[in-house]
Amino acid sequence: MSPDGDGVTLWRRVADDIRSNIGDGTISDALPSELELAARYGVNRHTVRRAIAALTADGLLRVERGRGTFVNNKPQRIVYPIGSRTRFSENMLKQSLEPSGRLIKSDYVLSDSVMAALLKCRVGTRLHRLDSLAVADGIPLSRSTSYFSAERFPGIIEAYAETGSITEALRREGVVDYRRRETRLTAERVSARDAELMSCAADAVVLISRAIDVDLEGQPVQFIRTKFLADRVELVMLQS
Amino acid sequence: MSPDGDGVTLWRRVADDIRSNIGDGTISDALPSELELAARYGVNRHTVRRAIAALTADGLLRVERGRGTFVNNKPQRIVYPIGSRTRFSENMLKQSLEPSGRLIKSDYVLSDSVMAALLKCRVGTRLHRLDSLAVADGIPLSRSTSYFSAERFPGIIEAYAETGSITEALRREGVVDYRRRETRLTAERVSARDAELMSCAADAVVLISRAIDVDLEGQPVQFIRTKFLADRVELVMLQS
DNA sequence: GTCAGTTGTCTAGACAGGTAGACATGTGAG
DNA sequence: CTCACATGTCTACCTGTCTAGACAACTGAC
Predict the structure, then answer these.
(1) What are B178's strand-pairing partners?
(2) Model confidence over A184-211: pLDDT tens digits?
(3) What CATH number belongs to B78-236?
(4) What are the chain A neighbours of B11 within 8 Å (beta carbons)?
(5) Which residues of chain A form CATH 3.40.1410.10?
(6) Where does the record place the HTH gntR-type domain (chains A, B) (predicted)?
(7) What is the pLDDT of residues B36-94, one digit of tens each?
(8) Which of A8, A53, A240 sits opposite B3 (nearest CB)?
(9) How far is the CA of A177 from the C1' of D22 (A)?
(10) Residues near B65 by Cβ (< 8 Å), separated by ≥ 6?
């Protein structure tokens, strides 16, 4: 895909493969010895050691000199339910986590044809763009960019800045209730800026959700793009 | 997180950030000049050039000497609906894609406490484990590992090998219909083995779905873990 | 204690990644 | 044409990655 390699070092790829094997249950307790792993991946023992060092620093592995390397009990990801009524604050409180939202930036944009179709508005309509950070117990979980009609919700930015909750901000702007109409999901490597904002590793992965929320009349109230840190969050859909 | 860096080269991180900006719409048509990008990221111009070279090789950018660098019309991801009735073959046919499934490996495992809880069976029950690859129009989209009760579905492996469809294989084993009960989603960097199986870049990202399918009586029929290539697939949930 | 097998540490060398600077070459506005 | 500005190419140098080999130190079985 690029001139030479792919921009990911060998030890990183080995580390990713070991992590994946742990997630699969392929490796459950003790890792193979460094020499065996080196042979299996066709790399030098030092390269394996570096991969293990990275996973140890992450708290995923535990090395015992003379005995071997072992898998730690991994910390659970925070569960994030996705349904027709997705509310960040409620979700966190149910898991005994203290939710908060922080405004990063806000400005105006004019809706292009894509955004106009999503929000069912005219091309060129003024939209509030709201960048925010979702935090639970002080740990950043996700970063969102929301788009609202500036005409319909003139005070939404201030309301969010005060409350730290989109649900609450919408309520102040007259939206009694809303529900999720559509959610689209994909994933990417985290961007440099987002890694800084969410204080995570530069090689982290984000789940990207693009969703439309509608009011009780079915009229779109917001388009929201959220990047969830994949190693801190698990999205759950109950389909009953 | 590790001794020195994070195992991702500088040019790769710059490339990821540019890609992310394109996805956001922050960059829509023309990129800033190489010198400006270098200044913005605090790196050398050559490093920016390498990042651009990688994105150009991916078909995302187009460079015109003396004029500048521009964003190409990006190819759409294949839409993969996730609902209570998720069927790979039907989904692909609706998008005029030719679906196929290939068996990678199959063996037996004994259910541990986690798997027993998911499939509502006793610990120690024999389970078929089925590794398969889902392909659309010759392009690998995802890799799955399914677990079935060996007692209830003795011939499921053969049935899948013949038909290349889990739905069809289950039907032959007496499951008239089934539906999705729960889907859990996270994401990771692709493992070396999966990158080879799905013939993608070593630095690709996968969406990991862990799901339970139940029959009409509500009894679990399979636990399935699927890794979708994030740059080829978009998961869509309609929540009406 | 002995021994096989494990992780820890050191040295040295080949090669890719990143920085720095210089200059060539194409483009479009004036 | 001229000029500012864009990308293309080259050399030189330093640092980090990966390989290779050797040896030390620790663990558990015998």
Answers:
(1) B215
(2) 999 999 988 899 999 998 889 999 999 9
(3) 3.40.1410.10
(4) 7
(5) 78-236
(6) 8-74
(7) 999 999 999 999 999 999 999 888 999 998 999 999 987 789 999 988 887 888 888 88
(8) A53
(9) 71
(10) none
